[in-house]
Amino acid sequence: MNTDLISYYHDRAKEYDKVYLNPAEQTDLQTATQLFQTLFYQKMVLEIACGTAYWTDRIAKTAAAVDAIDANKQMIEIAKGKIGADNVVFHVADMYAFVPEKRYDGLFGGFIWSHIPLQDLDQFIDTLQNWLMPDSILVFIDSNYVENTYHDKKNIAQTDEYGNTYQMRMLESGESYLVLKNFPTRDFLLQKLSRIATEIECIDLTHYWILSAKTKAARDK
Ligand SMILES: C[S@@+](CC[C@H](N)C(=O)[O-])C[C@H]1O[C@@H](n2cnc3c(N)ncnc32)[C@H](O)[C@@H]1O
Q1: 88-92 and 132-143 beta bridge pairing
Q2: Ligand 1 mean position to 219 CA, how many Å?
């Protein structure tokens, strides 16, 4: 069984945008859009794992600029084909090896927290602090467990020795993947982000959680 996340999204890129068409999620998507457009107003934003740029497009409407990275060239090509805004720049880059050329005052991650292995989370969160100025806005959105949906708790196929959970997913091609997808508790999110941030707020929508915070200066950690 293929468990490689990057090849999963490589193979899913062309069909990925269908995830945003579910009528049941439109209210949450609109709420999140308004919130992000307020939080990132006039910010220089780094977006990690931007995928097909669903959020890039929306955040760029009010941000000063968005640099958006994704490990998959296929995702970035689709994103570039959709977005013509001159305040957006896309790069193919692995977020675990990324070295930004400048510091940002905003960071956004859409549906990527759930794909970060628990054993790598602390190190990754600490790295974010190096990419951001003190008092930067940090925002993540990701999936809640929702009964009778794709993200029903019953769809967890495996749990590994670190507590990471995995779902079985099938693409339109019929190919199956075992995909890392974690569903953190609110306490866990607060505890993890408090390594580098203050003013942490967790907003619960029906389908998603949203975490926003402000980065501490490095010496405060
Ligand atoms: C669930 S999709 C989210 C896409 C987009 N953020 C959104 O919310 O629509 C996860 C994305 O993470 C990207 N990705 C996975 N591992 C990555 C890594 N190590 N570095 C950068 N991007 C990565 C995948 O290529 C995919 O586009």
Answers
A1: unpaired
A2: 30
Q: How confident is the model at residue 220 (pLDDT cuts 50, 70, 90)?
A: very low
Q: How far apart are CA 214 and CA 139, in angstroms?
A: 9
Output the CA 50–ligand 1 centroid distance in Å.
Answer: 6
Cβ count near 38 (within 10 Å): 9
Minimum-distance ligand 1 atom for the alpha carbon of 49: 22
Q: What is the pLDDT of residues 141-183, one digit of tens each?
A: 999 999 988 898 988 999 999 999 999 999 999 999 999 999 9
Is ligand 1 within 6 A of the CB of residue 113? no
CB 51 less than 6 A from any atom of ligand 1: yes
pLDDT tens for each residue of 123-143: 999 999 999 999 999 999 999
Write down the pLDDT at residue 201: 97
What is the pTM (predicted TM-score) of this model? 0.97
Task: Return the CATH superfamily for domain 19-147+185-215.
Answer: Vaccinia Virus protein VP39 (3.40.50.150)
